[in-house]
Amino acid sequence: MTDQQLLIHHRKVMIDEFFMQSILVKDICSKYHISRTTFYKWYNRYRSDGLSGLNNKIRSQGRQPNQISKNIEKLVLDYAYQNPSHGPMNIALNLSLIGLRVGKTAVYNALKRNHLNLRKDRFQRLQDGEKTIISKHQLDRQLAKKRSVKTKAPGYLIAMDTAYIGTLKGIGRIYQMTAIDTFSNYAWAKIYTSKSAKSACDFLLHIRNYAHRRIISRILTDNGLEFTTHHKSKKHRFEDLLAFYKIKHKYTKVKHPWTNGAVERLNQTYNQEFYQIAFRKKIYKSLQELQDDLDKFTDYYNFQRPNQGKRTKGNVPGKLFLLHKYSFN
Questions:
Q1: Same-domain pairing of 240 and 96
Q2: What is the arrangement of strands in the sheet containing 158-168, beginning at the earlier edge strand?
Q3: Rounded to an integer, what distance in angstroms lies between the CA atom of residue 120 and that of residue 116?
């Protein structure tokens, strides 16, 4: 018996009991833990429609009083299909040129009802409609969203990357080297004026000095020249330093930056929550001044800011990084 059939059976038993035993409605409601309103609803449906009246009715989604007509909605969707890069405002303006007056909010609501309010969804609909062949590169990127990096404990795998920050007056270009422990999301960051192997070596020492005695087992980087060489000799200062500390060097797949997604996401956090605010509030005259504020934010990120990572689950990264007891050696 299905769940729906079981519900109908119980409702029928309740109504039969009311008819056969002449029990008061309040006693029926008390016995079956329902309200009088609910009892009379099923009672009246049974009297008017018989056993079929005891089925759950499928509710319609309804319609808003100012919702655009289906014909206009079809025109909006057709335009969005042909021009997936256009947003609600652009769609509304272009439709007005052909005599169709519709507001940007109405356009947005029509797109949202059809799951097309995001640009990527409109492009996906265009791609699916034309049956475009997805390249192996695109397929790998889609599958990567469902995968998680394999890591066992704090220090097992540290992801590292270099991000261009901008230009400071009197200093020139500045870069940030960023690292994240892929198990706990614990972070390190330091600013440099060059994107070089010397900077990478200095940053590796910085990670070791502020790893709170955690053993670093593996480093994951891209194939940038600050981290490796494409020469056959494989002689590189950063590679030599890793070998000296017996740290394994792992590489991301070429032209697949999402395979180092943890540190890429951390770079985005630094940009949105630190640099975009700091550069609006203060004019930095020295690199050390900026580094001091960056260190304060990094401490805040590690020990005060709740993290929604897979393992942190709302806790701060520092708690998991320092307290987790596990040996991977």
A1: no
A2: 187-192, 172-181, 158-168, 218-221, 248-251
A3: 8
